[in-house]
Amino acid sequence: MSLALLFYDELKGFYKSKAMISLWMLFIIFTIVGYFGQKLLGEGLLPGTTIASILISSLGGVITSIVITVSIIHEKEQKVYDLFMIRPVKRWYFLVAKFFSVYICVIVAVIISLLVGVLIDYIELGMILPGVTNDLISTTSIMAVACGFGIFIGVLSPSILLAVLIALFFGQFVNLLPVILISFIEFDNMLLVASIFAIAIAAILMVISMFVFERKQF
Amino acid sequence: MEKKIKCKKCGEITTITSKPGETINVSCPSCSAIEKVTFENNNISTSNKSIVQINNLSKKYKDFIALNNVSFNIKKGEIFGYIGPNGAGKTTTIKILVGLLNKTSGKVFINGYEMPEQKKQAHKFIGYLPQQVAFQQWRTLNHALTTFAKLSGMQKNSIQPRIDELIELMKIGKLKNKKVNQLSGGEIQKVGIIQAIQHNPSLLILDEPLEGLDPESRYKVKQIFKDLSKTGTTVFFSSHILSDVQDVATKICILDWGKILKIGTIDELKSEFNKETQVKIVFSKKSEKFKEISKILGVQKILEKSYENCLVTIDKNVNYDDVIHNIIQTLLKNECHIRSITPVTPSLDEVYQYYLRKGVKS
């Protein structure tokens, strides 16, 4: 009951927030600018959906991590959690609620930008390219890592500045960790394995965050 | 929790330790007879039991001792004022009490539940207002209060009427649908007070609750504390505004440098400070002969504050009523017209300063 309430509340807060609206807009801009940018440069042309998938997985992931981490640290600094912590509610509920509310908003943003990519492909190439579902699966898996990493830094970092720096320097590496891991192993279904890795990494980051948050002093 | 039990078979006394509410089988070390022992949950059922018990509480931040062996109990229905200068350790005590901060040593019980080990159970009884009240900026006043009411376990159908009742009481009904970031500091403080009391907790822990409130609201909040106390709610609050503490607190604790300087009712605190009694005499007409009162047995000192009034110090060891009677008689005999005679009682501020100075000396 409390977890559902917190999740619903966070979702309500996030989808209407300026940060999330900016994120949605940014993902679409990444796709459009990315596609037409490479076209202007005249290098080997990648389809719009692939461009959307690559840019969101890398830059979008880092930005997502920053959005979550700034939200958590800001709320910690403002002492927003004090009033929640003295209620008979498990502390880790707050992190799980935040993770899923942001993740759902991000998935919507990913779907919108991939649809923009599909539209670009359709206009430019006259067809919808196969593999859009794969792009969606890989991007959403990486976004799970990005959300988990954002919460992880948010819980551990004492200041917004430090958290943003960590997200900028290590975010891309952590987000692409599932892809890096599968490059060492041979599997028939690489996408499935990468997705499982991504979920596992996100889960590990969340469990550590929850453990630390449970013992944190406010 | 410790308990001494006597073996029914051989009479051997054994000390056992367990958590409140637990039932354990105890084997007698002498005759090995097994007995079932239940540790009572110190839930407050009678008015003389303590709802808050703090024993030898200490808190260290690296080398800095924020709290040093603090011990006190708060009984059900008491309004406990916790005062002290900045950095005395008030907020640290409060944060440990509500389970936001871990103690270094000592024992803290709320309603019989040990903190922080049993904080989930203890939190059901607590209403808390932090020194810095903050809500997520995107929430409206009503939304924030509804969420906290639900998380505190209030019945769904009773939430909105209760919120409406309290926001009207605090005169912020018009702000119900305003976002929290559009409210002023005083308005946020009022919302903070509402979230602390809306679920009718049996223990209210408030850190500077009257800070930032206008005089009318301060009066109203103090009245709320008094009303809650009458219904059995215990109020523990810290404040810098000593006149407010004096108005509502039934018991006061003065803290400085992490140590308790004095605990007691206002009268108890004043009695140690007040070694002598003073009366202020205001004249409508005064003759120089008024100094004759200095000859009265028990009158220690006369201090002329102005032409119209003077301060007379009376020895505490003589009968106060007799001395006053003699003073009036003497003044009338010497053609002094008295407008008023009032006993001078020290303010809490003076008492507070006295104990702080005493604490520094010791």
Q: Describe it for me?
A:
The complex is a heterodimer of chains A (218) and B (362). Chain A contains nine helices and no strands. Chain A is mainly alpha-helical and 218 residues long. In chain A, helix 1 packs across helix 5 (92-125), helix 3 packs parallel to helix 6 (132-156) and helix 6 (132-156) runs antiparallel to helix 7. The longest helix of chain A has 34 residues, at 92-125. Chain A is globular. With 362 residues, chain B is α+β, with helices and mostly antiparallel strands. In chain B, the strands form five sheets. In chain B, strands 10-11-12-7-13-14 form a six-stranded mixed sheet, with helices on both faces. Chain B has a four-stranded antiparallel sheet with strand order 6-5-8-9. The longest helix of chain B has 16 residues, at 215-230. The radius of gyration of chain B is 27 Å and the shape is globular. Chain A binds chain B through residues 2, 5-6, 9, 12-13, 16-17, 75, 78-80, 82-90, 217-218, and chain B through 95, 98-102, 120-121, 123-124, 126, 128, 130, 132-136, 138-139, 143, 147-148, 150-153, 192, 195.
